[in-house]
Design a protein that fits this description.
Length: 171
């Protein structure tokens, strides 16, 4: 069961135990070099208990660190934008790492063509962690003109984060 009270997210597990959670987002554009694994980061916290975003090797908040052992459902979304400009290719890969090591079978490839320049990548993965371990999200593209893009609020809509990362303990 999930319920919200006064800007607080509470998660109750099946046995009635309080679950740990974290919700993080980025309000900055993110880009990387061609075919270069690049860490995704989230410099803002929407709410968290038992999970923090910490500085990674990129010197940005790219490590989602777990204070408690458990099984977590990790979800993300990223707004991809192909800026055009003649870059070669239109593929964009995203995968998960645990303690700096790629998690097997966690990669997904998307196509972001310049004639349809926006795509949203969003999926989830179940990860078992012990206290102190961290998860990172990594991307690589064959086109440096494909970025993870944020957009500011407008008169009619709130801001669009470039990257949203959440985790909820399921056991």
């Amino acid at each position: 069961m999930v319920f919200r009270t006064a800007n607080t997210l509470n998660v109750t597990l099946a046995a009635g135990n309080q679950g740990y959670y974290g919700s993080f987002y980025s309000s900055q554009d993110q880009s990387g070099g061609v075919n270069t694994p690049t860490l995704m980061y989230a410099e803002n916290t929407a709410g968290a208990d038992g999970i923090t975003m910490e500085l990674g090797t990129s010197n940005k908040k790219s490590r989602m660190t777990f204070a408690h052992t458990g099984i977590y459902n990790i979800q993300f979304s990223a707004q991809l934008h192909n800026l055009g400009g003649g870059g070669s290719g239109n593929s964009f890969n995203i995968w998960f790492r645990l303690d700096g090591v790629n998690i097997a079978n966690s990669d997904t490839k998307m196509t972001v063509p310049s004639n349809s320049p926006y795509a949203v990548a969003a999926w989830n993965f179940i990860v078992s962690v012990t206290a102190g371990q961290y998860v990172e999200m990594v991307f690589a593209s064959d086109n440096a003109n494909i970025i993870i893009e944020h957009e500011p609020a407008t008169e009619i809509a709130p801001a669009i984060p470039s990257f949203i990362l959440t985790a909820v303990q399921v056991r």
